[in-house]
Every structure is written in structure tokens, then in C-alpha cells.
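Protocol step 4 of 5: obtain the predicted structure for the target chain.
Materials: sequence only (see below). No template structures provided, no constraints applied. The aim of this step is simply to have a reference model before the mutagenesis design in step 5. Sequence pasted as it appears in the construct record:
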Amino acid sequence: MSTGQGLQKAIDRKVATFHGDLQVRGYQQALSADAAPLPLSDADINRIQSNPKGRTGAWHSACFKAGMASTPSQMMGAQLMGFSSLPERISHTLVAGQLPEWPSNEVCISREMARQLDLDVDSTFEMYFSRDPASLPTLRYYRVSGLYETGLLEWDESFIFADERQVQKLNRWEAHEHQAWLYYGELHGQDIEVLRALLPVECDVYSARQDFPQLYQWLDLFDTNTWILGIILTLVAAFNASVVVFIRVIERRKAVAILRTMGLSTGRLTQAMLALFSQSVLKGV
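Step 4 output (C-alpha cells):
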């Protein structure tokens, strides 16, 4: 049970590395790289961050842009994830190189992406972005400052961490325009409602469980399977213990008959046999 719960918490924490423990986005807005800027003013942001519930963690503005990463030998789809500053939780996943220094064109890619694109620390690569179907793709060059690894292959193959201003320029946005605000910290149901009440009606708070329901349904199913397996193992162990007791009684039937003939009471005999059988069961366990 403990192993299953530990695995779920580890997966949940790794997903939150990319998603944040919470995200503030537009109301009923899907998790998409093509989303419009968030309708939040500086006053709204300051009100949220100054609230006691919002001060317990770290807030990071973010923008996203899907594109095509290209090297002379390989090409693959990727998503540029621009941060105002790199979250501490992401910096802990660094396995090679150093964290990017922004503002610049330095990025952090996963070790898996580096393997597929044949890149290493200090390598450069191209990315192509589409602004509208009628125009040619936009070309940008990036330098790899570091490699990260989370163990979530689906995410590691997709995300490139970059300076948020790079993404804003690709979208032709101003510096105050963001697609989401990511929160990294511990908040519970009632705290989330407090933050939600501080937002304008055009915005809402989303958890990873809301944005990735299929993943968490699988985790819940895994938890159910763990309980079922635990119950089955308990029943099997109880059956085996009963068999051991039965066999020991058969082995000691002559001794039981002699003790009864000598006048030993049923209660004392039962206590003696239970003590003997308990030793055998405990050794087996």
C-alpha cells in the first residue's frame, strides 16, 4: 500500500513540474499552446500574490508556443514553454550543463530530446513556428545551456524551457501579456476557493487533475488494484495460517489425548496449543 501511494505522489509531483500545482488561465480555457493572452491586470496579480493563501508558494508567468525543432540530421515537434523565471522545481531536474540565463536565447531541453536531435550542452538548433497558414514559418535559433530529466517520457520529449519574452515576441505580444500563471506550492480545496474568489470572472484556477483526467483516473484505478491485491494476499495468508494450525493439531493428536486423560482442562489445553501454534505462524510470517 505504501509503495503504491509513494508512486502516485512521485508521479503527481513530476506532472506538477510542468503544470504547476495550480494554473490560472481563462475561464473554461483548455490547456493549449494557441490560447489567447490571460485577461489579468497587474492589480489582479498583486491581489492574488499578496493574499495569505497565495504567499505560501511561488508564482511564475508563462507562455507557450508549438513549433518544430530542427538539426542537420533530425527534426521533431516540440513546445516552447516560456517562463518569467525558471521554477525551482524545474531547476532540480537539471542533469547536465547549467540553468539558462535570461533574457537570452538560451534554453533547457530534456536529455531524451537531446539524444533524438543529436544535441549536447552548448549546441545550437533551429525552431520553426507558424503564425498563420498564409505566411512562411518563423525561424529562431536557440542555444542549449542545460539538459533536464524528469522520467516522464511523454513530457520530456515535448517541452523546451525558454525565456518567456522569446515566446511573447513570437506571438507579437507585450511584456505584460501571459497565457497562464503557474503556482508551485501546497494548497488545499478551501485555499483554492479563496484564490478563485480573487480572480475576475474571465479567469479560473485549474489543477493537474482537471487538466489530465485520464492520467489521474489511471492512478485511482492503480490505487483500487492495490487494495484488491492487499485483500487477496491477506485472505491467502489467513488460509495458510489455518492450514498450519490444522496440520499441527493432527501432528499432536496423541499428545492431546494423553493430556486429556491426565485431566488437563479444555481451557488450559486450548491455551497451550494456541501458544505453540502461534510460534509456528509467527516464524512463517
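Step 4 remarks: Strands lie at 22-26, 58-70, 75-83, 94-97, 106-110, 124-129, 138-148, 159-163, 180-184, 203-207. The chain has two domains: 14-211, 217-284.
Proceed to step 5.
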